[in-house]
Amino acid sequence: MLSLLKAAARSRAWLAMAVSLLGASSTLADVTLPNIFGEHMVLQRGQKNKVWGKAAAGEEVTVSIGSQTHKTKAGADGSWNVRLDSMEVGEPLTLTVKGKNEIKFGDVLVGEVWICSGQSNMQMSVNSSNDSDIEKAAAKHPKIRMVNFPQIGVQEPIWTHPDRQWQVCTPETVGNWSAVGYFFARQLQRTLDVPVGMINNAWGGSAAEAWVNRDLLTKTPSMQPLIERWMLNEKAFDELSKKTDLTEDQKKQLAGMQNQMRGNARPANIYNGVLSSHIGYGIRGAIWYQGESNASRAYQYRDLFPLMIQNWRDEWAQGDFPFYSSAAGSLAGRWPRRTKCRASRLAARSTSRWRSRAAKLC
Question: How many domains in the chain?
Answer without folding.
Answer: 1
